[in-house]
């Protein structure tokens, strides 16, 4: 499958809000090129070039994060099957499918609930893709 967009960068420290919501993210600065897709949430995969191009399934949120808007626009990547310290590592991110626009939620709890739904959607998306390969 051809990705919608590909970006790369070095993982930087963010606001550390994701970890307080149970969804720690790897953060990259938002690209400023003309090809950048619309802000929103995407099914994605992350590739780690310094680790034999290890691939990790992910959910990506790109934009200003309107529920907790502090700082510059970023790309936040939650790895579905990996919980490790990633600060300072180079990462290539492939945007695979647009899921939804950015939304301003009324509370952190509402944001957390939607993030869990996004994770379920992404896991099902990858499972359907794997199932199709095996046929």
Can you tell me the residue ranges where pLDDT is under 50 for at least 5 consecutive residues?
A: none
Rg calc: 14 Å
- Per DSSP E runs of 2 or more residues, the count of β-strands stands at 6
**Largest β-sheet summary:** 6 strands, antiparallel
Helix content: 10-25%
Described by the principal axes of the CA atoms, the overall outline is: globular
What's the helix-strand series?
Answer: EHEEEEEH
Q: What structural class results from the helix and strand content?
A: alpha+beta
Would you state the CATH class?
Answer: Mainly Beta
The total tally of domains equals 1
Report the total helices. Answer: 2
N-end to C-end Cα span: 16 Å
Beta-strand share of residues:
25-35%
Describe this structure in words.
The chain has a single domain (5-133), classed as Elongation Factor Tu (Ef-tu), domain 3 (Beta Barrel), CATH 2.40.30.30. A six-stranded antiparallel sheet has the order 1-6-3-4-5-2. The chain contains two helices and six strands. The two termini are 16 Å apart. The chain is globular and about 45 Å long. 27% of the residues are buried. The mean pLDDT is 89. It is an alpha+beta fold and 135 residues long.
List the helices and strands and how they pair.
Blueprint: E1 5-10, H1 17-20, E2 26-29, E3 40-48, E4 54-63, E5 74-79, E6 90-100, H2 108-133
Antiparallel strand pairs: 1-6, 2-5, 3-4, 3-6, 4-5
């Amino acid at each position: 499958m051809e990705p919608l967009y590909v970006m790369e960068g070095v993982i930087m420290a963010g606001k550390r809000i994701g970890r307080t919501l149970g969804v720690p993210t790897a953060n990259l600065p938002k690209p400023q090129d003309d090809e950048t897709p619309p802000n929103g949430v995407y099914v994605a995969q992350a590739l780690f070039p310094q680790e034999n191009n290890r691939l990790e399934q992910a959910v990506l949120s790109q934009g200003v994060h309107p529920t907790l808007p502090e700082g510059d626009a970023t790309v936040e990547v939650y790895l579905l099957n990996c919980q490790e310290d990633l600060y300072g590592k180079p990462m290539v991110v492939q945007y695979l499918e647009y899921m939804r626009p950015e939304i301003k939620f009324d509370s952190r709890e509402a944001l957390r609930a939607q993030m869990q739904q996004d994770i379920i959607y992404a896991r099902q998306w990858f499972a359907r893709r794997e199932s199709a390969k095996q046929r």
